[in-house]
Amino acid sequence: MERLDLRKLTGAHLKPYRSIDDEAPLPDEGGVLVSLARLKRDRAALAARKSPYGLLVNGDEKAAHLAPHLEDLAVIAINFGKFSDGRGFSLAHRLREDHGFSGEIRATGALIADHAEFLLRSGVSSVELADPIITAQFIKRLKLYSVWYQDAHDARPTALELRHGRTRKRLAS
Amino acid sequence: MYRYDDYDQTLVNQRIADFRDAVARRLSGHLSEEEFKLIRQMNGVYLQLHAYMLRVAIPYGSLDSRQMHKLAHIARIYDKGYGHFTTRQNIQYNWPSLREMPDLLQELAAVQMHAIQTSGNLIRNVTADQYAGATAEEVDDPRPYAELIRQWSTLHPEFSFLPRKFKIAVTASATDRTAVKFHDIGLILHDDPEQGRGFEVIVGGGMGRTPFVGPSLRDHLPEAQILTYLEAVLRTYNELGRRDNAYKARIKILVHELGAEAFRTLVEDEFAKLLPQADDLPQAELLRIRERFIVPELDALPARDPGFDAAYEKDEDFRQWVKVNSAPHKVAGYIIANISLKPYGGIPGDISADQMDLVADLAERYGHDEIRATHAQNLVLPHVKLRDLYDIWQALSVAGLGTANLDRASDIIACPGLDYCVLANARSIPIAQEISKRFAAKGREDLVGELKIKISGCINACGHHHAGHIGILGVDRKGEEMYQLTLGGSGDEQASIGQITGRGFDEAGIVDAVDTVVETYLGHREDHETFLETYRRLGPAPFKEALYGTA
Ligand code: SF4
């Protein structure tokens, strides 16, 4: 995974994607997000456009359902329905770990600044937040932490690696 | 005792800075109460009936005198001069103000303590046997494993927004003092002659509205694979646990609804996928943690001490306390001393700042600087010399900490109940106090022997009534506080769930009912049978008859 760049993670630097309803026509230009049903139906039309496209799924979606359709996706946006619902974290983890998805995973929906570390470390690489104040808090919060215990998906070294002077298998491979 | 290194300390400090920021955002209106609730709970702050409450973690129940002195200081400065030990080896403060919480947490951090994950829907403070490192019964000290799990579960990226709270206990003894089978995950360490060191893994036990003795998912899990297995269980639960109904959200319901076999298959499939990728860093880390544990250097002493023998001979009260409140130590000349926080008629688990300071002083002077908190809301000095025991007991007695009632009728576990808790149907503490007074009469408890009474103020069962030999549950009947009685529960290695006797009792009636049950036991017991043994032999019939007559 590429190095973490806090500026690109959220706020004004995010690549814009428009979420398109299943029945709405595809716009001529610009990145779009569609549902899994639409992706299956309109794959050719999506691929024929010049702009990138991706999936918009809910946090409770099963990674295995998405697995056959990951090729050519620029982004998978995971919608967190409630800020206390942690299923999206496991979905992000599985997309990276079980299915080797290396594109952008974007978190959207009911997110607050306090999700920041958890999202990044579960494999999310960009975060769409409701307003600029939350965005500022989010970035501030990410700068607060420098120690993590668990083996996770960001490339920052964990306390265990630092203590034992070595890199995890998962990253080394 | 595990000593933090810079990483541990830095993380705790950063978490406080983060929480300080969240409190500021809440006070300035940038966080809604609902959003803030999620964050404050992860940091140990809970909203009770009258005020915010802070629950401080005592990982696997171990603390030293410096930490205990700090807890006393916090009780004085931020609370009303006392603290309350809980059924999870934690301590609660009922009166600090929200504004002061970050400062309070900073004070804790100065002695390597925190309140992280003592509340909320995530992996809670890991508990372990309070006799760890002191009892000859154990395979090994379970606490390094518990510390490994503490670190792994602290701010876990994927498992911090679970359907419901998640409790893990670790024990390594044949006698279970942790209620291991009533946990979301219970780990029992063993040395298998063929397969080597590993854990039996219990998953899906619990109390609450629907109590379960957890089924065993694995007879033997090699110790090196523990974190990988936990990851498999937690991922399965995070994805499939119910989120539509808080009462059905614990892992026990998932295990029950799927069936233990189907659940095991899901976990094993996930585990098999993870295992080839699994790193051996945790195993190296376990060794490092062991090295950072301060293991007391115990002296070589004769097995008997003349001073102790003389005091034991001449002082009847001391003799009684030794018989009831002490346990054998693995090293000759040493003993494990239990400090009861259940004075007759007192509030179970409550302790004043002065008492905390005394316990800390005793631990420092006589106890190799170690103190333990137990899930039965008592304290332990795990390493004391026989020859010092009389001095210790005298000091405890003067301070009101010398009650000789460990595992006796008045050693009651009670939840905060209607005196503090928003969810309560009925009061627990006053019932505990009344029952305790009833048994205070000299000799009565002796006659009855081991008896575990546990009281919960509502079906959430924080007072573990399902696991009480005698359990009491507060219910609401048309606005009136009523109490249901259960018999035959047990939280030990032969775990069982108590059965409801029949119709409930009012406040005065429940104390009489307990009395009736105890008298019935005394009338029916054979030889040296304990209450539980008699109940298991006879079943509920004679008790029901005594309580309700032959209808
Ligand atoms: S059992 Fe009920 S009343 Fe008692 S502490 Fe738990 S939630 Fe509150």
Automatic annotation (TrEMBL), chain A:
It holds the Pfam family DUF934. InterPro entries: UCP030820 (IPR008318). This is Oxidoreductase. It comes from Iodidimonas nitroreducens.
Automatic annotation (TrEMBL), chain B:
It comes from the Bacteria. GO terms for molecular function: 4 iron, 4 sulfur cluster binding; heme binding; metal ion binding; oxidoreductase activity. Signal peptide: none annotated. This is Sulfite reductase. Pfam families: NIR_SIR, NIR_SIR_ferr. Gene3D superfamilies: 3.90.480.20, Sulfite Reductase Hemoprotein, domain 1. The keyword Glycosyltransferase does not apply. Residues 119-273, 411-546 form the Nitrite/sulphite reductase 4Fe-4S domain. Keywords: 4Fe-4S, Heme, Iron, Iron-sulfur, Metal-binding, Oxidoreductase. InterPro entries: NIR_SIR_4Fe-4S (IPR051329), NiRdtase/SiRdtase_haem-b_fer (IPR005117), Nit/Sulf_reduc_fer-like_dom_sf (IPR036136), NO2/SO3_Rdtase_4Fe4S_dom (IPR006067), NO2/SO3_Rdtase_4Fe4S_sf (IPR045854). The keyword Transferase does not apply. Residues 52-111, 347-396 form the Nitrite/Sulfite reductase ferredoxin-like domain.
